Amino acid sequence: MITKQKGTYDIYGDNAKKREYVNSVLDALCEKYNYGYIETPVFEASELFHRSVGETSDVVTKETYDFKDRGDRDLTLRPEGTASVVRWFIENKLYGNMSDPVKVYYNMKMYRYERPQKGRNREFTQWGFEMFGSDNIYSDAEVISLAYNAYRLLGLEDITIHINSLGDNESRKNYRDALIKYFRPHIDELCDDCRERLEKNPLRILDCKVDADSDILKNAPRTLDYLNEESKTRFDKLLDLLDLIEINYQVDTSLVRGLDYYNHMVFEVYYKNSLALGGGGRYNGLVETLGGPSVPGVGFAMGYDRTLEVMEEEGINIPINDSIDVYLLAVSENEKDSATYIAQNLRLNGFIVETNLLDKPLKSQFKSVDRYNSKYLIVLNDKDLEKNEVVLKDNKTKEEERVEINDLADYLDTHM
Ligand code: HAM
Question: What element of type H or E holds 366?
Fold first, then answer.
């Protein structure tokens, strides 16, 4: 038997219906914030992710699905959405007319070669959004507010935004120097990867999974102590804005995020202050890094699957349609022909209709009516059909009504 790959899953049944509901909530919310939908290709040039997400990040060094196609091109399955959206932004020269910000959102499968565990898969979905062209705290606040409201609209009330600032380029450099100075005397006590990270990108040592619990990491310098005046004022003003729009946040000085492209504010969304369900931040240098002009960017991505799992664990009511409108019971050839005709007609008029596709006897068709939770049923019979009529039965009240076949859709429209 061929089975699905480790860390992947099939989406079907109630789970598919629940995702439809979650998508509809997220789509409607993005519309309110005036973000347009974007979908990018599943694979891109490997260089795109190596240059943006960062050569020293775990995502690129250990987790990408890299392969060569038959034309010998180096390709990578997208591990995240931001780099792809930036590529799209540059390729379409959208920076040419920046009289308004460019705002897009996505709901896409991502691929990371991770050790599968609860909430971590190799194929997973991110709902995320990006904004280009604005470099002020108002766009920071809008992005945080959109992320925050998404979880709350999905029924997860106890949300805290963990937020930190990495500052502007000068602050980041000061901080980097401080980290190198701090870690150098301890470097033999850290893992092999961290030794390599020290010179290339000491920030990455801070989110090392191997050394996460070591005191060396816990006592490392904090970004906020290295912000210059401008970056500090900016961060304080952003926090004031978050107070103004009543976002529940907590400054988390240890938060640096696992991808290399961030500056200024970074944030993660926590449920019950213990479970991270998404993350984002500002990335003002990324468009330039990927070959475009200097255009600021900011965005966020939700771990979609984990969020849905938590909604289920918390018993949040996810409305799904688990009923059909009409079941047509038919036995003779003439009845089955008529069922096909009536079903075609009703479906085109917007009703959910099921028929007897297994040549089952009447008794087991009645069982299907209940299994499908059908609102109405029609037992077709040759006598009624001769008169172009059927008897429509309400499955709950058991009331019956004789209706002309051509009037069925209108009748159901007024009675449902
Ligand atoms: P990220 O923190 O790498 O950020 O991923 C965002 C979210 O995706 C995580 O918080 C997590 O919930 C979910 N996620 C990541 N890896 C997995 C996995 N293996 N299985 C299931 N869920 C996972 C980014 O990807 C950035 N592009 C976010 C961003 C957008 N920053 C600015 N704009």
Answer: helix 362-371
- pLDDT at residue 259, rounded to an integer: 82
For the segment 106-126, the average pLDDT, to the nearest whole number, is 95
The response to whether residue 277 sits with its C-beta less than 6 Å from ligand 1 reads yes
Residue 110's H or E segment, with its range, is: strand 102-111
Distances in whole angstroms, Cα of residue 20 to Cα of each of 17, 115, 369: 5, 28, 24
Closest by CA position to 220, among listed 188, 196, 187, 250: 187
Q: Which among 53, 65, 259 is the best mutation to test ligand 1's pocket, defined by most ligand atoms within 8 Å of the CB? A: 259
Contact 54 CB / ligand 1 (< 6 Å): no
Kindly indicate the confidence band of residue 365, based on its pLDDT and cuts at 50, 70 and 90. Answer: very high
pTM above 0.85, yes or no: yes
Q: What tokens appear for 34 in the block?
A: 């005036």
Cβ contacts of 144 within 8 Å, gap of 6 or more: 161, 163, 242, 247, 249, 267, 300
| Closest CA relative to residue 81, chosen from 114, 59, 55, 98 | 59
